[in-house]
Design brief:
Layout lengths: L10 E6 L3 E7 L5 E7 L6 E6 L2 H9 L25 E4 L4
Antiparallel strand pairs: 1-2, 1-5, 2-3, 3-4
């Protein structure tokens, strides 16, 4: 089994770039939102929603998302191309 199919949806994945943080956040419906948060900002912006973490990573790395308001394409940010290389954080359960 590859690592992408074994990913538990209670984790948030993050990649830190010079422009801000790219986040992959699970939703209650089982989808995964790709969000961008500029450094020193408390709010983030939704860039796309995907059925799996692997799909979200692929979209972020290869430019298949909305461009963040900073007008820099995520595919140029040097994001990790493997889910295993993203920082993984356990989300608190409601």
């Amino acid at each position: 089994m590859n690592s992408a199919s074994a990913i538990h949806s209670t984790f948030t994945y993050a990649a830190v770039t010079q422009w801000g943080n790219v986040l992959i956040v699970p939703t209650t419906g089982g989808w995964h939102e790709v969000r961008f948060q500029e450094h020193d900002q408390s709010e983030d912006e939704l860039l796309g929603t995907f059925p799996t973490v692997a799909d979200a990573v692929e979209a972020a790395c290869f430019g298949a998302l909305e461009t963040p308001s900073i007008d820099v394409d995520l595919s140029t940010m040097g994001l990790p191309k493997s889910v295993d290389d993203w920082d993984r954080h356990l989300r608190a359960r409601a």
